[in-house]
Amino acid sequence: QVHLVESGGGLVQPGGSLRVSCAFSGFTFSTYYITWVRQAPGKGLEWVSSININTGTPRYVESVKGRFTVSRDNANTLYLQMNNLKPEDTALYYCASFGFEFRYSTGWGQGTRVTVST
């Protein structure tokens, strides 16, 4: 059974940095991607970044390119390093896993809240 647990959220000032983590376990051959998805207050889900489990290839939504970096350690932790944060980055950040071509989800975490404000 896939298990994902996020941590590291918090309050940060505009222009600041924060790193959120996702500890994962239980992946099988049916999981291809680990993804960060966020939901801003009053808005829908937005895909932020993903990493291909097999190739390590990262992808980003245009609005975070050059500011966010997704990475994975040799164990079972995914990171999202967020630099030059903006108020519009305020959201609940979820870690989620997906199958081939993102056709299906294999698991979701409970989310970690990031607030960018003075």
Radius of gyration: 13 Å
| Low-pLDDT residue spans | none
Give the overall pLDDT as a whole number.
95
Describe the global form: globular
Enumerate how many helices there are, as a single number.
0
Alpha-beta classification = mainly beta
Count the E strands: 11
Q: Into which percentage range does the β-strand content fall?
A: over 45%
Approximate helicity band:
under 10%
Largest sheet: 7 strands, mixed
Order of helices and strands: EEEEEEEEEEE
First-residue to last-residue Cα separation = 40 Å
Explain this structure.
With 118 residues, the chain is mainly beta. Helix content is 0%, strand content 53%. It contains no helices and 11 strands. It has strands at 3-7, 10-12, 18-25, 33-39, 45-52, 58-60, 68-72, 77-82, 91-98, 105-108, 112-116. The strands form 2 sheets. Strands 2, 4, 5, 6, 9, 10 and 11 form a 7-stranded mixed beta sheet that branches. The chain has a 4-stranded antiparallel beta sheet with strand order 1-3-8-7, with no helix packed on it. Strand 5 (45-52) and strand 6 form a beta hairpin. The chain is globular and about 45 Å long. The model has no long low-confidence stretch (mean pLDDT 95).
Give the SSE layout.
Layout: E1 3-7, E2 10-12, E3 18-25, E4 33-39, E5 45-52, E6 58-60, E7 68-72, E8 77-82, E9 91-98, E10 105-108, E11 112-116
Parallel strand pairs: 2-11
Antiparallel strand pairs: 1-3, 3-8, 4-5, 4-9, 5-6, 7-8, 9-10, 9-11
Task: Describe this protein with a few key phrases.
0% helix, mainly beta, 11 strands
